[in-house]
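DM from R.C. (forwarded with permission)

"hey, sorry to bug you on a friday — could you get me a structure for this? deadline for the figure draft is monday and I only need the backbone to look sensible"
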Amino acid sequence: MKRPRWLRRPWQVALAGALLAVALAYAAIGAFIWSQAEELLAHPPQRPADAALVLGSRAYLDGKPHPCLAGRVDTALAMAHAGVVRQLVFSGGVDSEDGRTEAMAMQEHAVAAGFAGPMLLEPASTSTRLNLSLSRPLLLAAGVRSVVIVSEPYHLWRVERLVKMSGFDQSFDVQYAAAPTSCWRALGPFSKGALREPAAIINNAGHGYLF
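My reply, with the result:
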């Protein structure tokens, strides 16, 4: 009696099972991110803060400010106009995808939108962890004691974990603002950044940054 075809090549069965397990884990993390994102969107910051810290992402797309990054800045601008924050801090270094400095691109967008208030730039960070660690001394030197961290909805769960693990929240009173950018409104959890976020979470967790 011949064995079934799938039993003749057990390594293929094992490989398929492993790939399925990875896919299911990835989907589970994505679903969790989505639920946390919706919660943050429903609960914007309530307390006034000294500054909004806007975290960077890709600066330009097709020769124009990337709508995902511009949407983050627009959320910070709305808070400034509403009196929730009094100054803006832009954190992001040179983007390898377009060669532009994210912090400078955000400042340019804010100025073009008519913002004339105080702004600080942190132009060297190349990761979310560095956004926080390099911005901390800049914020402290400016006398900032309370911060609203602004990023896209899918990003903020990992940001919150990094804030706690790094002790950033021991230096500042921290709130979070989920930016409903056009990228998020159009694609939600299927936007490029959201699809990559589970991998970033797995990577950061593997290095002990989140837990």
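R.C.: lifesaver. The chain has one domain: 39-206.
me: no worries. The longest strand covers residues 49-55.
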